[in-house]
Structure formats: structure tokens, C-alpha cells
Write a structure and sequence with these properties.
The chain has 595 residues and is of the alpha+beta class. The protein is 22% helix and 20% strand. 27% of the residues are buried. The chain has a 9-stranded mixed β-sheet with strand order 3-20-19-9-10-8-14-13-4, with helices on both faces. It has a 5-stranded mixed β-sheet with strand order 6-18-17-16-15.
């Protein structure tokens, strides 16, 4: 039976006023059903209002006619069963994700802009991968959204404990997906600094120069040069020796602009274009291996280039496990296993080991001059070591159109030599002494149990964990002309004692063979230096900052003001003056007595 709706007269009049629609007259002879009159009736030609659109069906093509919409309770239950039980077409249903509404046709989206394009995720424990654990079997897990921190910010994990559990095989849990562990910039850049160039570190490997045409000339030897004690070559893990501490000796790492020998050589010889130290050049050579941030200052004045560093720069310290898969945690700044404390520990170990392995009974070799940085105050005793000032001439590129790039490049470099072999003659047998340190032995890998039986494996592990540091040492040995490298393995006496260490063994490597083993060639080494110097020579006179990005493998060059980085030195001088002033009983500066 049809449902009859009773409407008032006003509602009927209002409805008729809104829609102009005429019901066709009913057939007088065909009374068995509702509808228009049968075919052939004369009343069929009457106007039927809105139904006239039938004449224009060619303008509205019909693709498919589906089932009529059913909003009744039974229809809603049918739609739910369709989503759960898989009654729909192929590709829909058969899951526990619940009812998924059908998207409207594409034509209905015209004139609208999508604000959020993220796909909707359904909550459920269906079959598939288990969230962040990436397990291949059945598992439970939620998608973990983490935000990579920049400039020291810690990655934020929007997950609770227990969400990383999963069954079956997989990578398991949240891992350090290549995130750098040290995110602090060595220098905070300013907006007014102009960025001159951005160099991708992987492009440095393509720079080549014929190293056979490089010329070397010794200008001066300073300091003291002792003989290496071969007794330490026979040290093993069973006959380990305690590292001596030389706290009363003075160690100097003076920058280029503070070395008056380099300044005199630059002004006296008009052919010299560049002055630098081996510490600074080694960082530029091994830049592609670095992860942490560091910086170098390049000053160009009247066609001369001074490659310098800041006082207290990161270059003065040695990193520990910088390129390891599990580097030291940057959050533990105050811990003795943090990257800052470990770098200080490694630097002290290298200084002490370079003095411990010397044979002082054999006497030192006489050099041209004494230590140029000896304060001569009668209180400070300088450490043993030789400074070798070398003139290095790099060949030019005859195919280049630039006149400077065609001509040879002459630079004076101050290099360091730690010791010499007993049979050293004519510059052969010079030794570069370095030390690797172990701070947290692991049960499956410890030097005390693996160094004697697996020397190659220990060295390969250190090459992987300290690629930048070993690259710097090799470059320094090549620049200084040391044909032998002595690398000591030192470990803490106890894991919680960063002050006392023991020597477990010493490995001897020929510099050229070791450089080939780590993938450092002389052609690439001098090619990097020549390319950077040629680039700066094209710019105007000024002060430029070379900055390593801690978050990317990028080297950026900025133009900075002349007075930049001078405030640190002035603050140190003011602090020293305040310490020298006399204080009264209350700690205040005592007034000067009249003369």
C-alpha cells in the first residue's frame, strides 16, 4: 500500500510555487496501476514539466545505473555487511578496517583545494607489517612519526614503550637511521654573511693533480728531534705498559697568523702565495670523511692567502668514533663518554704518547733553531718535537684559460715531525707518532682479547669508526715527509677512569702504503688544495670562512667581516689582565698605590 502524506493547504501552495511540476492525467481505461497513460492515448502528448529533459539525453550520457540509495535500517546493515564480509566488488572489503565511504566522482572536486593530503590510516590488528618494527610476520605496532632535530634538538618520538614490539623476523625497533650524532655548529652563521660557494663533499674525490710534479724544499728545522724507542714495538697485551703523563711540559699548536716564521717567509719570498700549517690543510684534505662540524678561516690580502684557524677551534682536538655506526651520545655533554670529553681525552693521550715513546738517553738531533714558541720564562719546559718548514710547489693546469691557474703555486707549510728512527739518514726514517684510544670495550670486541690475534680486524674497525681522524694523520705525515707511521693502541685501565691508560701495542705502517689502504692518494690530496686556493684567488681581498655542515655532507664558504672572530682573542686578553691585577681581602680589585 502506498504511503499517503497529509499536507496543509499552505504547504501545498508553497510546494507548487517552488517547483513547476505537472502530474500527467491518469488514464481512464488503464486503471490497474499508477503511471502515464498507455501508448496510443492522446493525452500522452501533454506537457509533463521537468520530465522534458528526456529529449536531451544525448547531452547527458549515462555510464552505469546502480542500485537506488537505501537509507533504511536494513539498507545500512547491508552496507556494513558489504564492508566486512567482502560483498562488494574486487579490491574492496575483506578486512577489519570498518566502513570506508566511496569517494565522489572527480568532476565534483572541481573548484575545491585539498588542504591535507595525508592518507587516512585505519586502526586495526590485521595481517601485515607490524608498524615500526617492520616485522614480516604477525605483529602489533603503531606508525612512529619522528622529527629530525636540527642544531642540537633531540629527535622526538611519538611512541610509547611497548609499541615497538613485534613478532617474526625484521629489523626490529627504532634505529638510528643515519642521523648525525653531533648537531652543533662550530660557528653560528649570521644573515649578513654572504655565502660564496657550496661544495658537495663527494665531489672532492674527482679533483686530481699530478703529484709527481710536486716539488719540496726544506726552509728551516726548529725544535728538538729525538730517536724513537723500539722497545715499544714489542709491547703486547700481556706486557702492557702504563701511559706516562707529562703534565709539566708545554704543547703548542699555534695558528698560521701567529707564527712569525711563516710571516717572514711570506714577505721575504715574492714567489710564495700561500702559508698554512699541516693541521689545517689536513682537515681540508680529509673533509669528505668528516661528520662533525669544523671551520677554517682563509684571508686574502694583496694576492696572498693565509689559511688560518680560530683559537680553541675543533681542529685542535681529535674526535673519537666520529664515523662509527654507534657514535658517542651528544646528549651526554657532561659525561666522560660524551664527544667533547672524549676528544679532550684523545688529544691528551696523543700528546703523552708522543713523549713516552722517545729514547731520551740517545740524545736529540741538533736542528737549525729551537722551539719558536718557547716562552723562555724559565718555568715552562717545551715538549720534544720538530717543526719542519717546507716550501711545496704545486704544478699548474696548462689547459686552463686563467693565468693564475696555469702558473705553479708556491706555498710554505709548517709541518710537525715527532721522532726519527735510529738509522735515519738524509731525511729518510722520519716518524709520525699517533695513538688510538679505546674507551668502552665491548664483550664481542675488545683490544685486550683481539689485538694480538686479529690485528687486521682491529685496524679495519678503527678505519671505519675514525675515518676522518686517520685521514688527517695520513695527510699530515705526507705533508711533513714522514715515511713511517707509528700507531699505538691505548685503553683505559678501568672503564670509568678517563685519566689513566695502558699501552696494549704499537703497529708500524709505511705512509704511502697506509694512504693507499685508506683510499687517500697524493693526486687527490694536492688536487683538493689547488682547487680551493684557485677558487679563493678569483675573489676579491677579504676574509672567508670555510664551514662544515654537521647535518649534511656539504662544505660552505662565507665572506665575513675583517673584525670577525677577534672578540674571542680580546676577551681572553682581558681575562688574563684581570687575573694579573691584585685583589684585596674581599676579592675586589685593589686600588693602585700612588707612586
Amino acid at each position: 500500500q502506498p504511503t499517503i502524506f497529509h499536507l496543509g493547504s499552505r504547504a501545498v501552495l508553497k510546494l507548487l510555487a517552488m517547483v513547476d511540476f505537472k502530474f500527467p492525467p491518469l488514464s481512464k481505461t488503464f486503471t490497474e496501476s499508477w503511471g502515464p497513460p498507455p501508448h496510443g492515448e492522446e493525452d500522452f502528448a501533454a506537457k509533463i514539466g521537468i520530465c522534458d529533459f528526456v529529449e536531451h539525453l544525448d547531452k547527458f550520457p549515462l555510464t552505469k545505473i546502480g542500485k537506488i540509495c537505501d537509507f533504511t535500517a536494513s539498507g545500512q546493515r547491508w552496507m556494513q555487511e558489504k564492508g566486512k564480509g567482502g560483498k562488494g566488488p574486487k579490491g574492496f572489503g575483506k578486512g577489519k578496517a570498518g566502513f570506508v565511504p566511496v569517494a565522489p566522482p572527480k568532476n565534483d572536486d572541481e573548484g575545491f583545494s585539498l588542504v591535507d593530503s595525508r592518507p587516512l590510516t585505519s586502526k586495526g590488528n590485521g595481517k601485515g607489517r607490524g608498524g615500526a618494527s617492520r616485522s614480516k610476520g604477525k605483529g602489533k605496532g603503531k606508525d612512529i612519526n619522528y622529527q629530525e632535530g636540527i642544531l642540537g634538538q633531540r629527535p622526538k618520538l611519538n611512541a610509547q614503550k611497548g609499541d615497538l614490539k613485534g613478532k617474526g623476523k625484521g629489523r626490529g625497533g627504532l634505529q638510528r637511521r643515519g642521523l648525525p650524532s653531533f648537531r652543533e655548529w662550530s660557528v653560528q652563521t649570521k644573515t649578513e654573511w654572504e655565502m660564496k660557494r657550496e661544495i658537495m663533499l663527494h665531489s672532492l674525490a674527482k679533483l686530481q693533480l699530478n703529484a709527481n710534479e710536486v716539488l719540496y724544499e726544506d726552509l728551516m728545522w726548529c725544535g728538538t728531534l729525538h730517536t724513537y724507542n723500539r722497545v715499544y714495538d714489542r709491547v703486547t697485551t700481556k706486557t702492557e705498559k702504563r701511559l706516562a703523563r707529562y703534565e709539566d711540559l708545554g704543547f703548542f699548536n699555534v695558528t698560521t697568523s701567529d707564527d712569525w716564521h711563516l710571516q717572514e717567509m711570506l714577505t721575504a719570498d715574492p714567489t710564495v702565495t700561500v702559508i698554512a700549517t699541516d693541521h689545517i690543510l689536513a682537515c681540508l684534505i680529509a673533509a669528505a670523511r668528516s661528520v662533525y662540524s669544523w671551520d677554517v678561516i682563509i684571508s686574502k690580502v694583496a694576492g696572498k692567502i693565509i689559511i688560518d684557524k680560530r683559537n680553541g677551534s675543533q681542529i685542535d682536538f681529535l674526535s673519537v668514533n666520529e664515523t662509527a655506526q654507534d657514535p658517542p651520545n651528544v646528549e651526554d655533554k657532561d659525561s666522560y663518554n660524551g664527544p667533547v670529553r672524549l676528544s679532550q681525552e684523545a688529544s691528551c693521550i696523543n700528546q703523552n704518547f708522543s713523549q713516552m715513546c722517545l729514547d731520551r738517553e740517545a740524545g736529540a738531533k741538533e736542528l737549525d733553531a729551537g722551539n719558536p714558541f718557547d716562552p723562555d720564562d724559565g718555568e715552562t719546559q717545551v715538549a720534544s718535537g720538530a717543526y719542519r718548514y717546507r716550501k711545496i710547489t704545486l704544478p699548474g693546469n696548462p689547459k686552463s684559460e686563467d693565468e693564475f691557474e696555469k702558473s705553479p703555486l708556491v706555498m710554505v707549510v709548517r709541518t710537525e715531525v715527532n721522532a726519527r728512527m735510529p738509522d735515519e739518514k738524509g731525511g729518510k726514517g722520519l716518524v709520525s707518532v699517533k695513538a688510538l684510544n679505546e674507551y668502552e670495550p665491548k664483550p664481542n670486541y675488545a683490544w685486550r682479547s683481539h689485538l694480538e690475534s686479529q690485528r687486521g680486524a682491529c685496524l679495519a674497525t678503527e678505519l671505519k669508526n675514525n675515518s676522518f681522524k686517520l685521514g688527517r694523520w695520513t695527510a699530515q705525515a705526507i705533508l711533513s715527509g714522514c715515511d713511517t707511521m707509528k700507531i699505538g693502541y691505548l685503553s683505559r685501565q678501568t672503564n670509568n677512569d678517563p685519566l689513566n691508560h695502558t699501552l696494549l701495542g704499537v703497529q708500524t705502517h709505511m705512509t704511502d702504503g697506509f694512504a693507499e689502504q685508506i683510499g687517500l692518494t697524493r693526486n687527490n690530496m694536492f688536487g683538493i688544495l689547488r682547487a680551493i686556493i684557485d677558487m679563493v684567488m678569483q675573489w676579491e681581498d677579504g676574509k672567508y670562512l670555510v664551514l662544515k655542515d654537521p647535518t649534511k655532507s656539504v662544505l660552505r664558504l662565507y665572506e665575513v667581516p675583517w673584525d670577525c672572530f677577534q672578540s674571542d682573542d680580546e676577551d681572553e686578553e682581558e681575562h688574563e689582565e684581570e687575573e694579573e691585577q691584585e685583589l684585596d681581602e674581599d676579592g675586589n680589585i685593589a686600588p693602585q698605590q700612588p707612586g
